[in-house]
Design a protein that fits this description.
single chain, alpha+beta, globular
Length: 111
């Protein structure tokens, strides 16, 4: 399922709401997610061509994240709605970024 694309925050509010609605639907249907904790202030992830990002790539989330059932993931990101942002990895892969108790997370659907 890996993508070569890096995490891009979705800035268009309509598109962000569509991403959120799709992921909430996936979670409500009982699908699992992979959730990766990271620190954007100090972590660095190789994107491509020696470029780096402070957000993990999809491959980094999949490799270093923890599986979580959809209901638990939904509860976490709803509890942290004030920090919730939609992520687009390109190639149809999406996720959510949120902060909880001073830590940063990205959740992506597990395929």
């Amino acid at each position: 399922m890996a993508s070569n694309n890096y995490a891009q925050l979705v800035t268009d509010s309509t598109e962000a709401q569509l991403v959120l609605a799709k992921l909430e639907s996936i979670a409500a249907q009982g699908s699992s997610f992979i959730v990766r904790q990271f620190n954007p202030d100090v972590d660095s992830f190789e994107v491509a061509c020696r470029r780096e990002s402070n957000f993990p790539t999809l491959r980094d989330v999949e490799a270093g994240g923890e599986p979580m059932d959809g209901a638990a993931a939904l509860t976490l990101w709803r509890a942290n709605a004030d920090t919730l942002q939609s992520i687009n990895y390109g190639n149809g892969f999406i996720g959510l970024y949120y902060e909880s108790e001073g830590r940063s997370y990205i959740a992506v659907p597990e395929c």
